[in-house]
Structure formats: C-alpha cells, structure tokens
Write a structure and sequence with these properties.
Blueprint: H1 5-10, H2 16-23, H3 28-45, E1 49-59, H4 85-97, E2 102-107, H5 113-129, E3 135-139, H6 145-154, E4 158-160, H7 168-174, H8 181-194, E5 197-200, E6 203-204, H9 211-224, E7 228-233, H10 253-271, E8 275-278, H11 280-285, H12 289-295, E9 300-301, H13 308-311, H14 327-340, E10 344-345, H15 354-362
Parallel strand pairs: 1-2, 1-9, 1-10, 2-3, 3-4, 4-5, 5-7, 6-7, 7-8
Helix pairs in contact: 2-9, 3-10, 4-5, 5-6, 6-8, 9-10
Bound molecules: 5'-deoxyadenosine (5AD), iron/sulfur cluster (SF4) and FE2/S2 (inorganic) cluster.
Iron/sulfur cluster is lined by residues 62, 64, 66, 69, 71-72, 108-109, 141, 316.
C-alpha cells in the first residue's frame, strides 16, 4: 500500500483530491483497505442491519428518451405494460406479509392526469391495506410541485430521483434536448422542501465521465443533504444509442464493478449516516455484486416484487438478474446473501436513515 494512502483513510473529512485518489485506486490491497474503512464507518453510523424496500416496477411506459435506458420512448422492441391496481396491491400485500418496512413504486415517466390520479389512489390504497404500516417511496421521475404535493398528501414520504450525473454538460450528452439538468435539480429541491425524504444517485462509468465528475457527484449529494443514495454502474443496453459507447465494456466489466464499489465506499466515508442502496445493477455484473456493495458500505436492498410475467419488460440495462424469479424467491435468496456475510435484515422497520432522523430533531 502506498504510504500516502494511510493518512487519507484515517481522515473524517475528505478533500476533493483525497476523493479522487481513493476513487482511482487500482491495487487490490489498497482497495480492500478502502472497503474496510468504509465498513467501519458504516458499522459506527448505521450498523449492519440491512433494510428491505420492496420494488414494484409499475410500468415501462415512459415519455422520456434518455440515451442510456432500455425502456426509453424510442425503443420499439419493448412490449409496454402497466400494472393494474389489484396487481400493485397484491405486491404490497406480499411486502406486508414478508415484513418489509416499505415499498418503492417505480415507473417510466408520465405526467398526464390519469397517471397522477392513479398514483394518488394507489398510495392511499397501499396505506389502507397495510394499516399505515408500510412506508411508501415513489420513483416516478420529474413532476410538477402540485403533483408532488398531492402524492405526499396521499401518504408517500420518500422519493427517489437520480440526478444521473451532477455534471450539467455530461448530463446534456446523455439526454435529448428537451430534457433539462436544471429542471432535475429543481425537482430535487422541491421534493426536499415539501418534506419528502429524498434519495438521489448517479450512474458510474458513463461515457465521457471522469473521476473528478464522480468526486463532484459526492459533493453534490452532500450539498443537497439527501437521506438516501442509490447508484450503480452504467451498463450498456443493446437497443439504445449508447449500446457501443464504451468499447470493450464486457471484457472490462469487473473493472466497472470495482469502480462502482469504490464510489459506494467513498460516499459512505464522506456522508457517514445516510442510507446507501446496494443496487441490482451491481448484481448484473457479478453474481455476488450486491453482497460486495454491502461490504463496501451500502445498507439498503430493494428486492423485486414485480410479477415474473412483467420482469422482462422492465429491462433498463442488459443482464438484469432475477428475470425468472418471483418475489418469494428473491426474498429468500437475498436473505441468504445477507446472512452469508454476517449481516441481518431489519424486518418490520422503516429504516429511516439516522441522517434524516437527526436532521428532523434539529428542526
Ligand atoms: N445502466 C445502469 N443504470 C441505468 N438506469 C437507466 N439505464 C441504465 C443503464 N443502462 C438507471 C438510471 C435511472 C434508474 C431508474 O435506472 O439511473 O434513474
Ligand atoms: Fe424513462 Fe427513466 Fe428510462 Fe429515462 S431513465 S427513459 S425517464 S425510465
Ligand atoms: Fe432475485 Fe437472487 S436476488 S433470485
């Protein structure tokens, strides 16, 4: 290990240069030291209980056309679906029985009235069938303040909206001209102001992204004071404009995974008491990717609750795992993975981040 690395790993507050140095680690021994340090910070600030958020992939209908995403509007090869109210409630009932603290309702973006009313009704119904016990997170993209207000009033209390990259110029290269970085940041601010626990995140290893960009992403998370981070490696999808944007991606995919894990580790060290998800995209690269995410500092897992018949319809990237596994199988499989690394599942708890709870106390 380089002598210069040890003092950096002992610091409580990293500089931008420190962050870049850590993200750029190449040596396996140094990387292990980084993960160990991140794990220590995780143990101290959030513990080793993993919280489950059951993921309901509501619909793959999307009005947007992000260049990286498999369900973008322009992809004709996708069969579009939307779950019925009963199908969503069925998934929510599973979450209640399995004692998941909360569910995440995620979907392609739509801003029409029918969609807004549907979500509002669903949120109310999910609350109802769970006696108010199930926490509800929405991940439904950019919406107007009025819509965010309605869904909050209906009972949603967390919202996930990834910034994808905090570099506005890079953001522009990943989206068509009618998508706006500024609107995305504004939406995050609005959600925060309305009282949602806000989650955001980025993709790691995007075409044209530098290590300095990733360091700035971590600074962005801090500045936005978010409660939760969900991030994972960029994985090319064969039917998108970015399919071949990273030549040799497949041959080097282990390197992409390791960089994503370093990003999780450095984010844990720098932000300490927030929730960080070990995302499915990690498992798309390596069978044990999500366990590696937990060992690098993540503490949240989102087991998929979507009915098997719809899973292939929600392929944002290639190699997405669990295409044939149902909610019961994923639940058992994930619990096994978690106990295999000596951690436990926080059944029946909301698992709000200490960061959010501490902030609330001060208000
Ligand atoms: N690789 C990795 N993540 C992706 N997402 C979309 N497309 C990809 C891809 N090709 C992520 C985005 C989005 C989330 C729902 O899925 O970050 O916010
Ligand atoms: Fe739609 Fe989200 Fe995919 Fe963009 S990333 S195309 S908004 S589902
Ligand atoms: Fe879905 Fe293993 S996580 S089957």
């Amino acid at each position: 290990m380089r002598p210069a690395l040890d003092p950096i790993l002992k610091k409580d507050e990293l500089t931008r240069d420190d962050i870049i140095t850590l993200l750029d680690i190449d040596d396996p021994a140094e990387e292990s030291a980084l993960f160990e340090r991140a794990y220590e910070v995780k143990q101290r600030h959030v513990g080793t209980k993993v919280y489950f958020r059951g993921l309901i992939e509501l619909s793959n209908i999307c009005v947007k056309n992000c260049f990286y995403c498999g369900i973008r509007r322009g992809n004709r090869a996708v069969d579009r679906y939307a779950l019925s109210e009963e199908e969503v409630l069925e998934a929510a009932r599973f979450a209640v029985t399995a004692r998941y603290g909360s569910v995440v309702i995620q979907s392609g973006e739509r801003q029409d009235d029918e969609f807004i009313c549907y979500i509002e009704r669903l949120v109310g119904k999910v609350k109802e069938i769970s006696d108010g016990k199930l926490g509800i997170t929405l991940s439904l993209g950019e919406q107007s303040e009025a819509t965010y207000r309605r869904w909050y009033a209906a009972g949603a209390h967390r919202y996930l909206l990834r910034i994808e990259t905090s570099n506005a110029a890079l953001y522009k290269t990943l989206h068509p001209d009618d998508h706006s970085f500024e609107a995305r940041v504004e939406a995050l601010r609005t959600l925060y102001r309305l009282g949602y626990q806000v989650g955001t995140g980025v993709m790691i290893g995007l075409p044209g992204q530098t290590t300095a960009d990733l360091a700035d992403d971590i600074a962005f998370f801090k500045k936005m004071d978010v409660a939760m981070i969900g991030m994972g490696p960029f994985i090319p999808h064969h039917d998108t404009p970015l399919a071949d944007a990273i030549p040799g991606w497949r041959e080097h995919k282990e390197l992409h995974l390791r960089r994503a894990l370093r990003m999780i580790a450095v984010t844990r060290i720098q932000l300490r008491d927030i929730n960080i998800a070990s995302t499915t995209a990690l498992q798309a690269i390596d069978e044990t990717g999500r366990e590696m995410g937990l060992l690098a500092g993540a503490n949240i897992i989102m087991p998929n609750l979507t009915d098997t018949q719809y899973r292939t319809g929600y392929q944002l990237y290639d190699d997405k795992p669990c295409m044939d596994e149902n909610a019961t199988m994923c639940a058992a499989c994930l619990e096994r993975r978690i106990t295999s690394i000596g951690e436990t599942v926080g059944y029946g708890e909301w698992g709000d981040s200490p960061h959010f709870l501490n902030a609330k106390k001060q208000h």
